[in-house]
Design goal:
Blueprint (H helix, E strand, L loop, with lengths): L1 E5 L5 H11 L2 E5 L5 H7 L3 E5 L4 H14 L6 E6 L5 E5 L5 H11 L5 E2 L6 H5 L1 H5 L1 H8 L7 H11 L8 E8 L11 H21 L3 E7 L2 E7 L6 H19 L4 E5 L9 H11 L12 E2 H7 L5 H17 L5 H17 L2 H14 L3 H8 L5 H7 L4 H19 L8 H13 L6 H7 L4 H12 L3 H19 L4 H7 L5 H12 L3 H6 L19
Parallel strand pairs: 1-2, 1-3, 3-4, 5-6, 10-11
Antiparallel strand pairs: 4-5, 7-9, 7-10, 8-9
Helix pairs in contact: 1-4, 3-9, 9-10, 13-14, 13-15, 14-15, 14-18, 20-21
């Protein structure tokens, strides 16, 4: 067994002796090993010591899950004052791992903790004794009159002033608990340690109380700073919230701060406002603490013409030149430089819907459906970020571009002949049956081979090629639209206009007027042109 150990320097020698006596290969470090070190050593189990904030270990466990898809035996331990030692481990424990740990720490007689056994009270007595206290303070979130608030504060000796508070909320994304079933005690151990970190930070600053918490969230009522000036109060509050955010964790954790709460009766309003504020996490992953002040200072607005010009340009490339090198940059610009700072779900769905409409092919829609988050997914699970959504769209477009690139490397002579015929006779009226007869094959066989080689149907290819040629004429000539329609194989002008708008999102006239951008912005090479 290969065991990765992280502990303080004084324990290095005991763990080395334990490795020799138990016949284990051990890598010992005083700091949490990097992802690269874990990949290089490839441990079978971990022994990690609590040396700082619990959030550091929580963030580290997230990294371990990314590096080790299969859960590995994990043991956490903590050395307290007066030589007391506590440890816990996951359900997927290893007798060999526990034997190794006891061989190293036997002199300290470590106490095993398993939630919610009685042993838990030996290390976290307040978490067991404070049930009534927490139930009483939790009611503050749902409505309380000032007199009831004062009575609860006196009865349970809460560290809260009569008035002047902020509500600080910490939440852990559910994905951080994907291994909850096998590491339940470890997660509760880290959560209990985190609550101790929060309580210590409150005592070091203005005071306050954790009024309600569970394994993935905590509601903390903070006493407002009372300094000589508003500027000093602002700095003190910022210092406090940053300390709480650091204790909350840097990965898969979010923190929120309410506006000032002038009196206890207004606490419930701050709680209700949190439900609105938390929706902004999708746009504010980089924020240490999200508040109305942060949103006000970072939110930006853009003109409708600027937004539509960017979307139109992206739609053009998606419809006619999906492999263009400029497309990824434009998609990043739309999502990260326009949608993200606007913090608007309405704009997010407008942009995403435009991308979907630009890829009408059934295959393309299927690929994108998993890339663009639905409103229900975002607002119910509250997972993901605008950056992740942008990356999924980029990955999907890249997959489509690579698939459509088959058009440029067709191996079938018959399909290449069909492509050449379409490019040379697209202005004429012909059917798949007629083309099959020219190539001495059946229409069904030709259609099957064409789709297998290119990923799209022959009829679809003909339509897209005609529309691309029409777009070229609209942007580079002054010919009447009706003549362009005839030139690309449409005798019915209305049918041509309807098909053009279906594929591009704008009418031929709007295209010519620049609704999709200036003509010089677009290359004249057809997306569906093939060098044969």
């Amino acid at each position: 067994m290969r065991i990765e150990v992280c502990c303080e320097e004084s324990l290095r020698e005991p763990f080395q002796r334990a490795a020799e006596s138990c016949g284990r290969t051990v890598l010992i470090s005083t700091a949490l090993p990097s992802a690269e070190a874990v990949r290089k050593f490839q441990p079978d189990a971990f022994v990690l010591m609590v040396q700082g904030l619990a959030s550091e270990l929580q963030d580290y466990l997230v990294m371990l899950r990314e590096q080790c898809p299969a859960p590995l035996p994990l043991l956490l331990f903590e050395r307290r004052m007066k030589g007391r030692c506590f440890f816990t481990e996951g359900i997927q424990t290893s007798p060999a791992l526990r034997t190794f740990f006891h061989a190293a720490m036997d002199r300290e007689q470590p106490m095993f903790l398993r939630w919610p056994d009685e042993s838990w009270a030996g290390r976290f007595p307040r978490s067991v004794e404070g049930v009534q206290r927490r139930e009483a303070s939790k009611t503050f979130l749902y409505g309380v009159i000032n007199e009831e608030f004062q009575e609860t504060v006196r009865q349970y000796h809460l560290d809260l002033r009569a008035s002047g508070h902020y509500l600080f909320v910490w939440e852990l994304e559910k994905v951080a608990l994907t291994d909850y079933a096998v590491n339940k005690s470890i997660h509760y151990f880290l959560h209990a340690l985190r609550m101790e970190d929060f309580a210590r930070i409150l005592q070091e600053h203005c005071g306050g109380e954790i009024v309600f918490h569970d394994i993935s969230f905590a509601y903390i009522l903070v006493n407002a700073p009372q300094r000589k000036s508003s500027r000093e109060n602002s700095h003190a509050l910022e210092h406090l919230t940053r300390a709480l955010a650091l204790a909350g964790g840097q990965r898969l954790a979010h923190c929120f701060l309410s506006d000032p709460i002038p009196e206890p009766a207004k606490i419930c309003l701050a709680h209700q406002d949190f439900k609105r504020t938390c929706a902004y996490r999708f746009f504010c992953q980089e924020a240490a603490v999200i508040s109305n002040t942060y949103i006000k200072n970072h939110q930006r607005w853009f003109s409708a013409s600027y937004i539509h010009e960017t979307i139109d340009t992206i739609q053009h490339y998606l419809s006619f030149d999906i492999a263009n090198e400029a497309l990824p940059g434009l998609i990043r610009k739309l999502y990260l430089e326009i949608v993200k700072p606007s913090m608007s779900y309405k704009l997010y769905y407008l942009a995403s819907d435009a991308i979907l409409k630009s890829l009408k092919e059934e295959l393309s829609v299927r690929l994108l459906l998993d890339s663009i988050d639905s409103p229900w997914l975002l607002l119910t699970t509250q997972l993901g970020s605008i950056e992740e959504s942008c990356q999924r769209v980029l990955s999907c477009v890249d997959a489509l571009a690579r698939r459509q690139a088959k058009l440029h490397s067709i191996s079938s002579t018959m399909v290449r002949q069909a492509v050449r015929y379409v490019q040379e006779h697209f202005s004429e009226q012909f059917s798949v049956e007629e083309l099959g007869r020219r190539l001495n094959v059946s229409a069904s066989y030709l259609s099957q081979c064409f789709r297998e080689e290119t990923g799209i149907s022959l009829k679809r290819y003909l339509i897209m090629y005609r529309m691309q040629q029409a777009k070229h004429h609209l942007l580079s000539t002054d010919e009447p639209v009706c003549m362009i329609a005839t030139a690309v194989g449409y005798n019915d002008y209305r049918q041509f206009s309807k098909m053009f708008k279906t594929l591009t999102g704008v009418s031929p006239t709007e295209c010519r007027k620049g609704a999709m951008g200036k003509p010089q912005d677009y290359p004249r090479e057809a997306y569906f042109s093939i060098d044969i």
